[in-house]
Design a protein that fits this description.
The protein is built from 15 helices and 16 strands. The protein is α/β, with parallel strands linked by helices and 379 residues long.
C-alpha cells in the first residue's frame, strides 16, 4: 500500500446521509461506521487486548497527554512503539491531548504558542505546542494521529469561539509542518466552532483546505443538549470531503452513535461504556441496567438475553450484583466486556441496516426500547 491510510465509501444510503466505508491502515482495516474503545493509558481499563478484540473492535484509541506524562513517549518509542508496547496489533488512533487540556482548565493557560499546564500526577509544569504534540504522536507510532486543537467549553461566547477556532487552524498548519512520519501515520484535522453554525461552516472550509487524510469534529458532547449536537453535525458533515473519514470525537452513547451515523459520521470514540461499567451500569437490548439494584439480587438470567458476549453466556445477574456488592474486580471486568460488546453489536447491526436501506426502521426500533426524549429530528 502506497499510503498509510486509504478510505473507500462502499455504499451510500438513499434515505439518510449514512454510508458504509472501509478504512485501510498499515495495521489492518476498519469497517465504518465504527466505535473505537478508549485505551487512555495504553490499556482499555480492566480488559486484555484479546478481550477487546472479541467485542468486535477493530481499532482502539490511546491518549497523547496521559502517555506523555506517564510513562513518556520516548520510553514507548524505545519499546518498539505503542502497538508492541500494549500488545495490540490492529489500528490505533491517538488524540492530541486537546480535550485533556480543556478538561483541566484550572491547571492550564492557553497562548498562541500552546498550552501550559500542571501535571495532575506531580504538579510539574509542562507546555504542549503543536510541534511537541507531533513529536509525541510520532514517537508513539499510532496509525492515525490528531492535530493539536483547543476544545471550547459549553456555553461559549461567539467571539471567544471564533478566536479559538482561528488558533486551532494555525495549530493544525503547524502540526502539518511538524509531522515527520507521514509515510506511516495519517494526520487528521479537527473542526471546531462551538455550537455556532456559522463558525462550524467556516472552520470546515478552512480545515479541509489543508487536504488531510481525515477530519475530526471536536468540541461537541461537552454539555450541550443532544439535539444541538445533531444540528451542528447537520451543518458540518456535508462540508467535509466525501472521500475522507469523518470522526465525531468523544461520543459513545448508543443513541448518539445511531444519530451520528445517520448524519454521515464514520468513526466514534468515548470512555462512556467502560466508565459506567465500573459503576455497575450496562447497556442492554432491554435498555440500561443498573446491576447494583436490589431487584437483581436473585435474578438467574443473563445481563442481556440477546447478547453473545462471554459475560452473558456464563454469568447471572445475581452473580454480577454479588460481585459489585462485594467490590470484586471481576464485576468491573465482566460488565466492561459486555458494554463494549453491546456497542460492537450495535454498530454491526447498524451497518447491516444501512446496507439494506432500513436504518430509519432500525433507529425507530432502538428508540422503542430506549426512549426518545433526546432524539434528533427525523433525518
Amino acid at each position: 500500500m502506497n499510503k498509510p491510510l486509504t478510505f473507500e465509501v462502499k455504499q451510500r444510503s438513499g434515505q439518510t446521509a449514512a454510508r458504509l466505508g472501509r478504512i485501510r491502515t498499515l495495521h489492518g482495516e476498519i469497517d465504518t461506521p465504527a466505535f473505537m474503545p478508549v485505551g487512555t493509558q495504553a490499556t482499555v481499563k480492566t480488559l486484555t487486548p484479546e478481550e477487546v478484540r472479541s467485542t468486535g473492535a477493530q481499532i482502539i484509541l490511546s491518549n497523547t497527554y496521559h502517555l506523555y506524562l506517564r510513562p513518556g513517549h520516548e520510553l514507548v518509542r524505545g519499546q518498539g512503539g505503542l502497538h508492541r508496547f500494549m500488545h495490540w496489533d490492529g489500528p490505533i488512533l491517538t488524540d492530541s491531548g486537546g480535550f485533556q487540556v480543556f478538561s483541566l482548565a484550572p491547571l492550564r493557560k492557553i497562548t498562541e504558542e500552546g498550552a501550559t499546564f500542571k501535571s495532575y500526577l506531580d504538579g510539574s509544569t509542562h507546555t504542549l505546542t503543536p510541534e511537541k504534540v507531533m513529536e509525541i504522536e510520532n514517537a508513539l507510532g499510532a496509525d492515525i494521529i490528531m492535530a493539536f486543537d483547543e476544545c471550547t467549553p459549553y456555553p461559549c461566547e461567539h467571539d471567544y469561539a471564533r478566536s479559538s477556532m482561528e488558533r486551532t487552524t494555525r495549530w493544525a498548519e503547524r502540526c502539518q509542518a511538524a509531522h515527520l512520519r507521514s509515510d506511516e501515520q495519517s494526520l487528521f484535522g479537527i473542526v471546531q466552532g462551538s455550537t455556532y453554525p456559522d463558525l462550524r461552516r467556516e472552520h470546515a472550509r478552512r480545515i479541509t483546505a489543508l487536504d488531510l487524510p481525515g477530519y475530526g469534529i471536536g468540541g461537541l458532547s461537552v454539555g450541550e443538549p443532544k439535539p444541538v449536537m445533531y444540528e451542528i453535525l447537520e451543518e458540518t458533515v456535508p462540508l467535509l470531503p466525501q472521500d475522507r473519514p469523518r470522526y465525531l470525537m468523544g461520543v459513545g452513547s448508543p443513541d448518539a452513535l445511531i444519530e451520528g451515523a445517520l448524519r454521515g459520521v464514520d468513526m466514534f470514540d468515548c470512555v462512556l461504556p467502560t466508565r459506567i461499567a465500573r459503576h455497575g451500569q450496562a447497556f442492554t437490548s432491554l435498555g440500561k441496567v443498573v446491576i447494583r439494584n436490589a431487584e437483581y439480587g436473585q435474578d438467574p438470567g443473563p445481563l442481556d438475553p440477546a447478547c453473545d458476549c462471554y459475560t452473558c453466556r456464563n454469568y447471572s445477574r445475581a452473580y454480577l450484583r454479588h460481585l459489585f456488592k462485594a467490590e470484586e474486580i471481576l464485576g468491573l471486568r465482566l460488565v466492561s466486556l459486555h458494554n463494549l460488546r453491546y456497542l460492537g453489536r450495535l454498530m454491526a447491526e447498524l451497518r447491516q441496516a444501512i446496507a439494506a436501506g432500513t436504518e430509519l426502521a432500525f433507529r425507530e426500533s432502538f428508540y422503542a426500547v430506549w426512549g426518545s426524549e433526546d432524539r434528533g429530528r427525523r433525518v
